[in-house]
Amino acid sequence: GHLDLAKKTGARIVYGPNAETEYEKYEARDGEEFKLGEITIRVLHTPGHTPESTTFLLLDEKGKEHAIFSGDTLFIGDVGRPDLAQKKGSLTKEDLAGWLYDSLRNKIMPLPDDVIVYPAHGAGSACGKNMSKETWDTLGNQKKTNYALRADMAREEFILEVTEGLQPPPQYFAKNAKINKTGYESFDTIMERGAQALSPEAFELAANAQDALVLDVRDKEDFVKGFIPNSIFIGLDGTFAPWVGALIPDLQQPILIVAPQGREEETVMRLSRVGYDNAIGYLEGGFENWQKAGKETDAIDSIYAEEFARRYQAQPDIHILDVRKPGEWNAERLEPAEHFALDFINNNMAAIKRDELYYLHCRSGYRSTIAASILKSRGYDNLVNVQSSLEEIIAAGIPQTDFQCSGKAEA
């Protein structure tokens, strides 16, 4: 929204050193200061996540360091991943990780412990490996708890730790970075187009005429009971934006929305925030209105842990697909399960057979519902979604492997 904000307020867009854009901006120098009334913002060039990464230090009216806006340099519990700005034949992720080590040690860690850290992202973002759900913390506490700020950590050790185990970034990352540098369509135009109510008839016509993807963002419990055929579930109340970015390859894909009443505009806005600007309307009256109009519906067979365990005990060779991330799978899993990570579902679909029955599970039922909806839309009908948590499934009696610590889990 930086271009819209600049246009509406007349304010200048300020970047740190080395930023390249195709629109007018002010490129600040390292150490340069900007006065805002009685407070001051100082530019701290902190390359590492990208060469142009910059932290902004807020000084109060007495000149005391009060807070840092650390962008993607320092998160709560983590630091920015250094593999997104690599250039072939030039910078490697190890080079950038080394820069990040220097930036943290030379620019951020020397600041007072009571300085407040405000990062750009929190839990659920793929910009880091181990981000906390907290949105702020003191720098002093981060020095005690953030693995990347350990005082005794050598440069080579840091480089190894921050580059180890990085999963491929979502496809939209590079495209979003390009949009941020080249510009984008007006936010008002995006909202006006996306937040238009469509009757069931107009919704169906638009879906067919524009080859639109129908995105259902309701609660997973509501979705599995009934939905528009071929629609994809990614619920607003889960890790919505990262999964949209990971699973919808084309940023220009026309999208039609099925949302809970009152959350239609929120959905258009949240799609736009990660570069999906081509929402073309939402279903007026929601799924209930679709049903009242007598339109075709579909559903996903869903069960809970007790029934899942009963079926497993009756037939131990059933096919179980675990759609969690590789790190979660490696840490702990159901012994009879096969790994079928949601992240790579579009590439690995041929690995499962249409005539076999599959039981899908994750940690809470959110990701397995996404996976089931995608498979269903591609013609895989022999699916059972397990809505229970992994803990409930294990407690019901399905055997699991021994636990090995492997970082944070996701819903």
Give the topology.
Elements: H1 2-9, E1 14-15, E2 26-27, E3 33-36, E4 39-45, E5 54-59, E6 65-71, E7 74-75, E8 78-79, H2 93-108, E9 116-119, E10 137-138, H3 139-145, H4 155-163, H5 172-182, H6 187-194, E11 197-198, H7 200-209, E12 213-216, H8 220-225, E13 232-233, H9 240-247, E14 255-258, H10 264-273, E15 279-283, H11 286-292, E16 301-303, H12 305-314, E17 319-322, H13 326-331, E18 337-339, H14 345-348, E19 358-361, H15 366-377, E20 383-386, H16 390-395
Parallel strand pairs: 1-2, 6-9, 11-15, 12-13, 12-14, 14-15, 16-20, 17-18, 17-19, 19-20
Antiparallel strand pairs: 3-4, 4-5, 5-6, 7-8, 9-10
Helix pairs in contact: 2-4, 6-10
What structural keywords apply?
Oxidized Rhodanese, domain 1, 411 residues, alpha/beta, globular, Metallo-beta-lactamase, Chain A, 3 domains, five-stranded parallel β-sheet, single chain, 20 strands
